[in-house]
Design goal:
10 strands
Length: about 325
């Protein structure tokens, strides 16, 4: 089966019908790489103080304000309301390494689908949604807003960069000064920190090509005032490869566009080493984000994205 290489705005708009059965809940999804010994720090909506009022029979004794009670000599409780919104900022990777897929769709298409499902789900619960959509050359900013037109504007930018990537067949976007303007995760996270001042949910959708130690400080800066959710997009062929005689692999330097081709070795030794390399990469991701208690939710190119989100967040697919 050939993987689809692009997706248009109409298709992203139609995903609104699939944006149900999952929620960005403040608990650790059971299928995450971080499930088990380490809790996440996805807090969800906060609580805002509403009023101080007299105690009524049946009120939770844990809400009693003992200082006010002592001062006024009658029992008072503090009441809270759930915060009305939590803006969601989607960081959507459409760089050259995302243009790869062996089944169903490329990573860039899956990233676009994830962005659409997250945007429509966010709007459906009354929160604002915006994002940073980036390729190798630049970053497009769409500020969070609670409107269908703003969500469509965000998805228009996703579809535009997705189509441009497919047209270039995975070659990096070039500018007059490509080397200086080459977009890295560091640059995108810096931009996200400036835009998400406090109480945002920042969702990074990427294959984490250049995620390294320099990302840790930037993630920590965002986490101090916001929540962060990382969704690594991967292709099954990246996890395990059964090489065939005559198979050739191409590697393109993102900065220069220069491409090298090498013949892929065959046999169990190479295949085991290939799987071990991917496992090592997953370990790097986990160690990078686990210390900061950031949920890490891998999504495959081989399955429908909506079903994976429902499974990752604890709901059974339809």
């Amino acid at each position: 089966m050939t993987a689809r290489v692009s997706i248009d705005l109409d298709e992203l708009a139609l995903l609104r019908a699939e944006a149900h059965g999952f929620s960005f809940l403040p608990h650790q999804p059971v299928s995450s790489l971080l499930a088990g010994r380490h809790d996440s720090r996805l807090r969800g909506r906060g609580l805002a103080f509403d009023e101080l009022r007299a105690y009524h029979p049946g009120d939770d004794v844990r809400t009693i304000d003992w200082r006010a009670t002592a001062r006024l000599r009658t029992t008072y409780v503090r009441t809270y309301t759930e915060e009305r919104e939590r803006p969601v900022l989607l960081l959507v990777d459409q760089r050259a390494p995302m243009f790869f897929g062996s089944r169903r769709a490329t990573k860039s298409v899956v990233g676009a689908e994830l962005a659409a499902l997250a945007a429509w789900r966010t709007l459906s619960v009354g929160d604002r949604v915006g994002g940073l959509v980036f390729d190798d050359a630049d970053v497009v900013e769409v500020r969070p807003h609670r409107s269908r037109s703003r969500a469509l504007h965000l998805l228009h930018e996703v579809a535009r960069k997705n189509a441009a990537l497919a047209e270039r067949r995975g070659r990096p976007a070039r500018t007059a000064d490509s080397e200086r303007s080459h977009v890295t995760l560091d640059r995108v996270l810096d931009a996200a920190a400036r835009l998400a001042r406090h109480d945002h949910l920042v969702v990074l959708i990427s294959d984490l090509t250049d995620a390294g130690e320099s990302v840790r400080r930037r993630v920590a800066a965002i986490q101090r005032r916001n929540d962060l959710l990382v969704v690594p997009v991967f292709d099954p062929l990246g996890a395990a490869l059964a090489a065939r005689p005559g198979m050739v692999a191409a590697h393109r330097d993102p900065a220069t566009g220069h491409e090298d081709r090498v013949r892929v070795p065959t046999g169990a030794v190479f295949e085991d080493a290939y799987r071990a390399e991917f496992a090592s990469l997953v370990d790097e991701w986990a160690s990078l984000f686990r210390a900061l208690r950031v949920p890490l939710l891998p999504v495959s190119t081989a399955e429908p994205v909506a079903d994976q989100l429902r499974r990752l967040f604890g709901a059974a697919p339809r």
